[in-house]
Specification:
By secondary structure, this protein is an alpha+beta fold. It has one domain: Electron Transport, Fmn-binding Protein, Chain A (Pnp Oxidase, Chain A). Pfam families: PNPOx_N.
């Protein structure tokens, strides 16, 4: 493993070329559930600087990342090479969720150069990267990338803004550990 001072040109190129990445967060203390989520879709991840990245967080079945970030801010993003030379890059840092209901959301959304339809985005996850490392990835399998799925975008396109607010209020009201997330009406 090698620790890097920042997200430099080579690492940035590698990160931006990956069609998917994984996000890991955990609650504070010994209790609660650790969460790992796969993320993808072209245009939903952005390197904003040598120590800052962000991704678009779409409405989904849970909101563990948002709950954990609200509680302690700890987050790790992992990018694996499934094609080409083996490599794994991890970005450790402090993150925050900026919900669609916050005034700052629109400005952060503009930092994504070519996002897909943003109608179903519930927040931008903004990460201050504190540690950058890469490792060999020799055991990561070789897999072919066929393309992005469009099911999430099609699902959200059928919902109005009010429908999405209700979705957050009902389906994302609390984490699996009972931590309130979108319990209030937007």
């Amino acid at each position: 493993m090698k620790v890097h001072e920042r997200i430099d040109g080579r690492l940035r190129t590698f990160i931006e070329a990956q069609p998917m990445f994984f996000v890991a967060t955990a609650p504070a203390g010994p209790g609660g559930h650790v969460n790992v989520s796969p993320k993808g879709m072209g245009g939903t991840f952005a390197v904003l600087g040598e120590h800052r990245v962000a991704y678009l967080d779409y409405h989904g079945s849970g909101a563990e990342t948002i709950a954990h970030l609200d509680e302690n801010g700890r987050i790790t993003l992992m990018f694996c090479a499934f094609q080409g030379a083996p490599n794994i890059v991890r970005l450790h840092g402090r993150g925050r969720a900026v919900p669609v209901t916050e005034p700052e959301f629109a400005g952060l959304l503009r930092l994504f150069p070519a996002p897909p339809d943003t109608h179903g985005v519930r927040s931008v996850i903004d990460v201050a990267v504190e540690r950058v490392s890469d490792s060999c990835g020799y055991a990561v399998p070789l897999m072919s990338y066929e393309g992005d799925r469009d099911l999430l975008l099609r699902s959200h396109s059928r919902r109005t803004g009010a429908d999405l607010a209700e979705y957050r209020r009902v389906k994302n009201a609390a984490s699996i550990d009972g931590r309130p997330i979108f319990a209030e009406t937007d």
